[in-house]
Design a protein that fits this description.
The protein is of the alpha/beta class. It has 37 helices and 33 strands. It has 4 domains: 40-45 and 52-66 and 77-247, 2-Layer Sandwich (Dna Ligase, domain 1); 258-347, 2-Layer Sandwich (D-amino Acid Aminotransferase, Chain A, domain 1); 384-517, Phosphohistidine domain (Glucose Oxidase, domain 1, 3-Layer(bba) Sandwich), CATH 3.50.30.10; 554-643 and 683-896, Alpha-Beta Barrel (TIM Barrel). The radius of gyration is 33 Å and the shape is elongated. The structure holds adenosine-5'-diphosphate and magnesium ion (2 copies).
């Protein structure tokens, strides 16, 4: 009976021997991997892990779960038996570390406390046990320092200062030169600091130390820093952290001891080799803290050959076991090697592709798994032009790599100058302390943006990423003085007009012009570099192989948004399988604007027909070229979408012109009429005004002219033995009636052209689904549409009630900071809102018309996460800008690939 009851009780504590690497949700990454290594038979100091479930209870209720204390006690008992010591026992103390470890690594967010169990009494025991006074007092001062800072919230600098003073007093520079007596004094000093700052004594009871440390780890989940980090990395806030209690091993027991970190491969190139750092006579964070100089790991071979060989052996075991690059932490205690941590290591984008194919070649993973080891975001990074590695550079400083790319230009310190200079053909880098919505025009005008304040979600970063513009933000060493139009970095002064180069992929800022080289990956996609060629680099070969695999497995087709033959041809080279969106409005600008103006101003049918007649052959020629470029592939042409006033002069400029003319009494008839038209067409909310299908319905002849141009162009291409596959798309439909009217007219025009030319044209007619009403009545609309293309930009605007141009620059930063969304819904599709409308429209549309073709042509079509969503809801294709096509192909492959068992995010 009691057994039954017990088995239902939640288990909050797992011995290292009980877990494994698949239990990251419960044991956190560190705990799961410590258990995995233990079970592999690697030398891991014994210990146990308190689950994230316990943390969740603590965070919800403010108290640890009732059962936790007893469970910890029994695991501690077992640990003490195994080690033959008791926690903090005066003559033979067991010491432990209390370490945080969440599911996803959050570097530097939650601290670890080492040497728990030391007290005024047990420090003596430790000294005797180790036969080393200095070591014991060094360990004790470290405990008080870490415990004071992490658990008791004492300002860490106070301890640092005291340590500095002790070194100064002794005229030494490194902590290892302090002897036992010095450290003993330091302990007294540290305890005083604790007493004054925390208002309590440093706890002498070892179990109290441990319990307080455990709670502190729970608490650390919710520090501001940790919350911000999670928001930026899009880690859910309710996961909680696990706590690892691990028996101590000591790297600070003299020169035959030490501690180090290592990678099983080079995280930059992916190549196998010995990569890491080692520090003799040191504990824990000393390696990364940079207080003493580490030596390259390879030197460990001279220092301690036995441990080195064993470490190499273990690294190989880990690689073969995890089938991936691992990073590890280890400690050597008097010639005995201990493993303290491992995890699948972070890597650069280039290394990710290289490592994935290297592992396939080694037979460790298959192609499906290789596909999961890379991401579209990494591929996108590899496609930006970059600074020439070989170039001699003058590094000024570095900030946060906020939006990738390599930008070079003259320094300007305000938006006005940015705009003025860029108009006269200069390339400029806009440098600000931080940006705000007033800087928008300057941000558009410049090559890149550099700020000295703000992080990855600052205004500059968010807006720059949205515009695809290079940005380095938060470069705190730069002192930006906008009044004097200069910035200072240490000794260096950069004046307005001086050339600077910024690298949005690394955050580095250079003085002068650093030469930019095109990305080899783009050269490859462009067909200018062949993966098989002798001089092709390893990276290109890896990208080629992984792309080929993605193309083989993906179900989604990938089309391009392209308006002219040039873009279409590039899209084709990049692997586009058609055009998903050809916007016709660009075809109405330039020289043709005058004709469009006439059309808008036309008073009579005759005048209107006259201008339409002049536009027709021009439009037709555009389509002939496009269909030729895309011969054999579908081309979806969207009929005119934007409000007409976009084709008329600016209202203010025109008013001024008319007023000036009036004062000179030489009125221009045309200007007056134009002004009237501008006034007539002026709208409060043009986005929701006279545009899309509404234009087609109220301007007679406009849409039919466009349809005729498409039909005649298709006929001409057929005559030339081409294979045009035009699809006509009606924008902004809200109800099936709109579509029916336009369709009837279109069908008639097509029939006329077929009769005139004697050529049968199979032109599909479909609609965009970009208004909530269209999505909600998709079943009806499908009666009149042969295809749907989801216009997720407008759909996002109308579902959220956001005007994109207005909201992104004004309050999105605040929304991101408050965590209302982790990413802009214009960047990644909002699955719950916009996405659910897409999903139901897909179902309703297909229910009406099972062979309905479904695609998406909003910018989401090239966004990795959104591509997965479109795959899941069963679209036929995504369409995106030519440059994003490889990313979409890769992600479509990843979405379709069934490989499981990957830890990669
Ligand atoms: P982080 O997640 O910051 O790396 P860790 O929990 O890994 O934190 O611990 C910080 C440092 O202390 C690391 O260098 C680790 O190797 C070391 N450390 C942790 N536990 C022990 C232990 N039981 N014995 C010796 N060193 C330890
Ligand atoms: Mg660690
Ligand atoms: Mg639209």
């Amino acid at each position: 009976m009691s057994e039954n009851k017990d088995s239902q009780v939640v288990k909050f504590v797992y011995d290292f021997t009980e877990g494994n690497k698949n239990l990251k949700d419960l044991l956190g990454g560190k705990g799961a991997n410590l258990a995995e290594m233990t079970n592999l038979g690697l030398p891991v100091p014994p210990g146990f892990t308190i689950t994230t479930e316990a943390c969740k209870v603590y965070l919800d209720s403010g108290e640890e779960p009732v059962a936790l204390r007893d469970e910890v006690s029994s695991h501690l008992d077992a640990l003490e038996k195994k080690m033959g010591k008791k926690l903090g026992q005066a003559d033979n103390p067991l010491l432990v570390s209390v370490r945080s470890g969440a599911k996803f690594s959050m570097p530097g967010m939650m601290d670890t406390v080492l040497n728990i169990g030391l007290s005024d009494k047990s420090v003596q025991g430790l000294a005797k046990q180790a036969g080393d006074d200095r070591f014991a007092w060094d360990s004790y001062r470290r405990l008080i320092q870490m415990f004071g800072k992490t658990v008791l919230d004492v300002d860490g600098e106070l301890f640092e200062d005291a340590l500095e003073k002790a070194k100064e007093a002794k005229k030494v520079t490194v902590d290892t030169d302090l002897d036992a007596a010095d450290l003993k004094k330091l302990v007294t000093r540290f305890k005083k600091i604790v007493k004054t700052e925390a208002g309590r004594d440093f706890p002498q009871d070892p179990r109290e130390q441990m319990d307080l440390a455990i709670n502190a780890v729970f608490e650390s989940w919710n520090t501001d820093r940790a919350k911000l980090y999670r928001r930026q990395e899009r880690i859910p806030g309710d996961l909680g952290t696990a706590v690892n209690v691990c028996s101590m091993v000591f790297g600070n027991l003299g020169p035959d001891s030490g501690t180090g970190v290592a990678f099983t491969r080079d995280p930059a190139s992916g190549h196998q080799g010995v990569y890491g750092d080692y520090l003799q006579n040191a504990q824990g964070e000393d390696v990364v803290a940079g207080i003493r100089n580490t030596v390259p790991l390879a030197e460990l071979e001279q220092i301690d050959k036995k441990s080195y060989d064993q470490l190499m052996q273990i690294m190989e075991t880990l690689e073969n076991h995890y089938k991936d690059l691992c990073d590890i932490e280890f400690t050597i205690e008097r010639g005995q090697l201990w493993m303290l941590q491992t995890r699948v290591g972070k890597r650069t984008a280039g290394a990710a592709f290289r490592i994935a194919t290297q592992l396939v070649d080694q037979g460790l993973i298959d192609e499906a798994e290789a596909l999961q080891r890379v991401s579209g975001a990494q591929l996108a990074q590899l496609m930006f032009p970059r600074f020439d590695d070989e170039a001699k550079v003058d590094l000024l400083g570095r900030g946060i790599a906020a939006s990738p790319g390599a930008a070079v230009g003259k320094a300007v310190f305000d938006s006005y100058t940015a705009i003025k200079w860029s108009r006269s053909g200069e390339k400029v880098i806009l440098i600000r302390r931080e940006t705000n919505p007033d800087d928008l025009d300057g941000m558009i005008a410049c090559e890149g943006i550099l700020t000295s304040r703000g992080g990855k979600t600052s205004h500059a970063a968010v807006v720059a990423r949205g515009m695809g513009k290079t940005c380095v933000c938060g470069a705190e060493d730069l002192e930006v003085d906008t009044k004097r139009r200069r910035m200072t970095i240490g000794e260096t002064i950069v004046e307005e007009g001086d050339v600077v180069s910024i690298d949005g992929s690394t955050g580095k800022v250079y003085l002068g012009e650093v030469p930019v080289v095109p990305s080899p990956v783009v050269e490859y996609f462009e067909g200018r570099m062949h993966a098989g060629a002798d001089d092709a680099d390893e990276l290109v070969g890896a990208v080629h192989r992984i792309m080929a695999y993605a193309d083989r497995v993906r179900r989604l087709r990938v089309r391009a948004n392209a308006d002219n033959a040039e873009d279409a041809l590039r899209a084709r080279r990049f692997g586009a399988q058609g055009i998903g969106l050809c916007r016709t409005e660009h075809m109405f600008l330039g020289d043709r604007r005058e004709l469009v103006e006439k059309l808008i101003l036309a008073d009579t049918d005759g005048e209107r027909e006259e201008s339409l007649k002049l536009l027709l052959p021009l439009q037709k020629q555009d389509f002939v070229e496009l269909f030729e470029a895309m011969d054999g592939l579908p081309v979806t042409v969207r009929l005119l979408d934007p409000p007409l006033h976009e084709f008329l002069p600016d209202i203010t400029e025109l008013s001024v012109r008319v007023a000036l003319a009036e004062s000179r009494k030489d009125n221009n008839e045309n200007d007056l009429r134009l002004l009237q038209a501008v006034h007539r067409l002026h709208e409060q909310n043009p986005m929701l005004g006279l545009r899309g299908v509404r234009l087609g319905l109220v301007i007679p002849g406009l849409f039919t002219m466009q349809v005729r141009a498409i039909a005649e162009a298709a006929a001409e291409r057929k005559n030339a033995k081409g294979d045009p596959r035009a699809e006509i798309m009606i924008p902004l439909v809200g109800t099936v009636q709109e579509l029916e009217i336009v369709r009837e007219e279109a069908d008639q025009v097509i029939a006329e052209v077929e009769e005139q030319t004697g050529i049968k044209l199979k032109l599909a007619i479909g609609t965009m689904i970009e208004l909530p009403r269209a999505a909600l009545t998709a079943g009806q609309i499908a009666e009149a549409a042969q295809f749907f293309s989801f216009g997720t930009n407008d759909l996002t605007q109308t579902v959220w009630g956001f005007s994109r141009d207005d909201v992104e620059a004004s309050f999105f930063t605040a929304y991101l900071e408050k965590g209302i969304f982790g990413v802009s819904p214009f960047e990644t599709i909002d699955r719950d809102g916009v996405g659910s409308l897409v999903k139901s429209a897909v179902e309703a549309g297909r229910a009406t018309r099972p062979d309905l073709k479904l695609g998406v042509c909003g910018e989401h079509g090239g966004d990795p996460e959104s591509v997965h969503f479109f795959h899941e809801v069963g679209l036929d294709y995504v369409s995106c800008s030519p440059f994003r096509i490889p990313v979409a192909r890769l992600e479509a492959g990843r979405a379709a690939s069934t490989s499981q068992g990957s830890d990669h995010r």
